[in-house]
């Protein structure tokens, strides 16, 4: 009686459904006639039938039939309780009456109509997916078993259950058929939409927006502890448990390199799945798209993934934390973001870094610690549960199992190993493992050959679950089988988690942005918010402007600087290798001709070999000093944070810079001509040369006296009034100096050499005075400075007199007179002037422009290196702006994503 009571309302439902079907069929035969006023009004209210189409009647029939499919679940329920045979018959009649849907693409070519048909099919799929006949039988069976039934009744019940199982398999096939047709229809719709938006800006899909948001968060690091808590699917499992194969089945492509028992996943791989008309893959930092329908491009993709993994692992390590981002698009793919992590290992093998096991566990723990991450825990179904490492790790992180999905792989091997149905039920019901989970699934992701295609594996998986003894004995878990059901469940869980957490994450970044902006206002109120790239461009502009301003330096400033640097650089050579040797020769020979001869030879040789190159180096030094001086003068108006970058760029550019090769020959001719002319034509030139000679002598005299003072120690005045004292060596040198000065006073025209008798006499005199012997080397060293000072004093007195004798010089008919020293310094003065003028012209006409170009090249090189920018632009001001910009960008992306997510709802 209880069974009959349950049947009565169901029978009423059956009669109503039959009437509905009959009415649908009658209307389908009569719709080509003239419609009544009421029918016409109903059709006008439907947006589909407002489209003027020649085949309007046929479209109406299709929509009525499709809407009738929504009633199939009532037939299943009534058949499960009443008569399995009747339900099977009615189901078969309805399925046979369904028309072929391929003609829809020809009948409804318009995009709007295609969208309506697609939505109708999706609605049907959602209703049919919710029907689980096994669960209905499980709920009804206890009521039947509770009654005392005869053996005949028991046989009828068993037969009914068997028929329902067969009907469920047929239902599964029809569902897959409709799903394939829907997939083709979606592809057609996507292709039509792509053709329309091809000429305008392509709008990013929701999952692409979310993936970019995760990339930004992955690079974000802040001292305000704003963490990335947005959901993603973390694929984790023991090594060789099949976790990569599960991800490939979800992506419907063999996109990862494979190895026989070898650890292939060495870095996290973020895979963004999205729907598209073509099955393609693309890396985040690359514009190339890999066609996943071609085996050759699949092989290239796997090779590229392997290369990126190896490059990400630093020397001495086996795994890396650097994320490899990839997008996979294709028709029918579930939209989600998955992260494939290296497999958990029990021990470290040869060739691995000693800390590999701990690094993998720390990496996995870090990703799973995100409270909103969905953990896809992969367990090898062909091994004992006690051998699992990953389940313990997952249980420690997600103790309540609120975001864990357990996936049992290799169940086909489990069946070969004689695993019983009770074990499968325990695993999928969550009673075998101590860990808790949100859902439990069993999948088959391979046939044992790594070259098998995804389609062949899917076919093998479906065939296995249709024919498997484990599947037949576990009819209540059909929705927990196959990777298709797994991917749909994971996608639903993923988007549910995203909707629940994205606004909370947006609020966190709003608070972080407020904190950063407050810090900026308090610490840098007068500065603009410029990041590294903007500061880099600011420094570029300032330096290039300074280079341009070099052309505005006056001729006088250039030439004064060049003349001073030239004389400073060559004065030592002029005195030590030209003037003094020639002057000493005059004292020995008492002939001015020898002076001019030696000077001419040395100057010509010097001008041909050393002077032009030395002059170019001097010009380059002056250009560099002038440039740096201008930068320092404008430093007060510039930003101090740019100083390090500016100096590094300038030094690099100056190091790269080389003077024009043509300048050598030009300078050589100019300098030789200047040094050969000894004729002083006017008094101005004479006074200039004489003054230059006098000032040079004074400088050298002062330098010599300083050296001599250091050698002989403080004077008696300094000893008495400044309490200074002499060392023993200084005292000895002072005594030698006194003897040598007496020698020069007795013979002012003494040559620069001491005779052997003079040396012995001085040594004996010192021994008698001090009682200590004196070394000849000490005498020679002291004599060098004493005679040098004596010579400079004599030459200086002579120069003062010669300065007043220009008119005597003009009246003199011989050029071999006593004016040879003034002539020498006139030649040097003229050479310095002409060289400075030539260098100034080269700098302003060519070298400034070349320096400008070289500085631009250095900036371009530095601009391509983020490490160089980080090294040269440092400080809290820079890092604060970067953090603030990242937070602003992430907040904007979050707001855009939330807006798009709300629109999709």
UniProtKB/TrEMBL annotation:
Family matches, as Gene3D superfamilies: P-loop containing nucleotide triphosphate hydrolases
Membrane topology: Single-pass membrane protein
EC class: hydrolase
MF annotations from Gene Ontology: GTP binding; GTPase activity; lipid binding; microtubule binding
SUPFAM superfamilies noted in UniProt: P-loop containing nucleoside triphosphate hydrolases
Record-given protein name: Dynamin-like GTPase OPA1, mitochondrial
EC number: 3.6.5.5
Transmembrane segments: none
Cell compartments where the protein resides: Mitochondrion inner membrane; Mitochondrion intermembrane space
SMART domains per UniProt: DYNc
Gene Ontology BP term (one): endocytosis
Keywords linked to the UniProt accession: Apoptosis, Coiled coil, Disulfide bond, GTP-binding, Hydrolase, Lipid-binding, Membrane, Mitochondrion, Mitochondrion inner membrane, Nucleotide-binding, Transit peptide, Transmembrane, Transmembrane helix
Pfam families the record matches: Dynamin_N (PF00350), OPA1_C (PF19434)
């Amino acid at each position: 009686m209880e069974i009959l009571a349950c049947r009565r309302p169901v029978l009423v439902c059956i009669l109503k459904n039959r009437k509905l079907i009959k009415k649908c069929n009658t209307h389908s035969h009569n719709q080509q006639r003239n419609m009544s006023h009421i029918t016409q009004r109903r059709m006008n209210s439907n947006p589909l039938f407002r489209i003027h189409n020649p085949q309007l009647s046929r479209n109406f029939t299709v929509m009525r039939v499709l809407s009738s499919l929504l009633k199939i679940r009532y037939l299943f329920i009534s058949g499960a309780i009443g008569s399995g045979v009747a339900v099977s018959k009615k189901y078969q009649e309805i399925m046979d009456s369904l028309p072929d849907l391929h003609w829809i693409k020809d009948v409804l070519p318009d995009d709007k109509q295609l969208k309506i048909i697609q939505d109708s099919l999706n609605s049907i799929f959602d209703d049919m997916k919710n029907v689980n006949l096994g669960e209905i039988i499980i709920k009804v069976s206890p009521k039947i078993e509770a009654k005392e039934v005869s053996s005949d009744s028991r046989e009828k019940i068993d037969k009914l259950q068997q028929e329902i199982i067969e009907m469920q398999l047929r239902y599964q096939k029809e569902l897959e058929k409709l799903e394939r047709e829907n997939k083709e229809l979606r592809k057609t719709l996507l292709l039509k939409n792509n053709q329309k938006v091809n000429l305008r800006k392509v709008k990013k899909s929701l999952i692409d927006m979310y993936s970019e948001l995760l990339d930004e968060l992955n690079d974000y690091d802040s001292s305000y502890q704003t963490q990335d808590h947005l959901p993603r699917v973390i694929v984790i499992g023991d090594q060789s448990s099949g976790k990569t194969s599960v991800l490939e089945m979800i992506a419907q492509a063999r996109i990862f390199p494979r190895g026989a028992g070898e650890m292939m996943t060495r870095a996290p791989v973020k895979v963004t799945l999205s729907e598209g008309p073509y099955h393609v893959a693309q890396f985040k930092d690359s514009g190339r798209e890999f066609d996943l329908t071609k085996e050759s491009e699949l092989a290239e993709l796997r090779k590229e993934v392997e290369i990126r993994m190896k490059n990400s692992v630093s020397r001495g390590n086996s795994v890396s934390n650097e994320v490899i981002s990839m997008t996979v698009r294709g028709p029918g793919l579930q939209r989600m973001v998955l992260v494939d992590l290296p497999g958990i290992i029990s021990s470290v093998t040869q060739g691995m870094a000693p800390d590999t096991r701990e690094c993998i566990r720390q990496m996995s723990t870090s990703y799973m610690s995100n409270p909103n991450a969905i953990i896809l825990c992969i367990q090898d179904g062909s091994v004992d549960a006690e051998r699992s490492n990953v389940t313990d790790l997952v249980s420690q992180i997600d103790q309540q199992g609120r975001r864990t999905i357990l996936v049992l792989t290799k169940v086909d091997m489990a069946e070969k190993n004689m695993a019983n149905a009770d074990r499968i039920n325990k695993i999928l019901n969550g009673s075998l493992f101590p860990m808790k989970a949100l859902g439990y699934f069993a999948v088959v992701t391979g046939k044992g050959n790594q070259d098998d295609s995804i389609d062949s594996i899917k076919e093998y998986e479906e065939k296995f679950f249709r024919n498997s003894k484990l599947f037949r004995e576990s009819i209540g878990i059909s929705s927990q089988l196959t990777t298709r059901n797994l991917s749909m469940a994971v996608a639903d869980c993923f988007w549910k988690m995203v909707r629940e957490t994205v606004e909370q994450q947006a609020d966190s970044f709003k608070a972080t942005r407020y904190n950063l902006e407050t810090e900026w206002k308090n610490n840098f109120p007068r500065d603009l918010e410029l990041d590294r790239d903007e500061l880099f461009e600011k420094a570029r502009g300032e330096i290039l402007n300074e280079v341009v301003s070099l052309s505005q330096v006056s001729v006088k400033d250039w030439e004064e600087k060049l003349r001073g640097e030239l004389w400073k650089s060559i004065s030592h050579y002029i005195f030590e290798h030209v003037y003094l040797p020639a002057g000493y020769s005059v004292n020995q020979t008492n002939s001015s001709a020898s002076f001019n001869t030696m000077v001419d030879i040395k100057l010509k040789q010097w001008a041909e070999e050393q002077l032009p190159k030395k002059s170019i180096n001097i010009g380059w030094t002056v250009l560099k000093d002038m440039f740096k001086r201008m930068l320092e003068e404008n430093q007060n108006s510039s930003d101090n944070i740019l100083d390090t970058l500016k100096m590094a760029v300038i030094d690099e550019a100056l190091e790269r810079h080389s003077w024009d090769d043509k300048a050598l020959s030009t300078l050589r001719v100019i300098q030789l001509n200047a040094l050969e002319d000894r004729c002083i034509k006017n008094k101005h030139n004479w006074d200039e040369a004489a003054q230059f000679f006098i000032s040079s002598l004074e400088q050298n005299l002062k330098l010599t006296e300083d050296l001599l003072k250091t050698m002989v120690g403080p004077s008696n005045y300094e000893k008495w009034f400044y309490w200074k004292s002499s060392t023993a060596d200084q005292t000895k040198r002072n005594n030698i100096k006194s003897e040598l000065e007496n020698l020069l006073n007795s013979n002012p025209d003494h040559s620069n050499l001491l005779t052997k008798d003079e040396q012995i006499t001085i040594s004996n005199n010192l021994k008698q005075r001090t009682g200590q012997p004196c070394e000849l080397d000490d005498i020679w060293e002291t004599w060098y400075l004493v005679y040098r000072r004596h010579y400079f004093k004599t030459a200086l007195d002579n120069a003062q007199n010669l300065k007043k004798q220009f008119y005597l010089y003009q009246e003199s008919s011989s050029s071999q007179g006593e004016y040879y020293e003034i002539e020498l310094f006139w030649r040097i003065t003229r050479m310095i002037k002409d060289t400075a003028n030539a260098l100034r012209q080269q700098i302003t006409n060519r070298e400034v422009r070349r320096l400008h170009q070289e500085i631009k090249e250095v900036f371009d090189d530095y601009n391509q290196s983020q490490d160089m920018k980080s090294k040269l632009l440092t400080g809290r001001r820079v890092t604060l702006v970067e953090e603030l910009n990242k937070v602003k960008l992430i907040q904007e992306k979050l707001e855009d994503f939330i807006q798009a997510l709300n629109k999709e709802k």
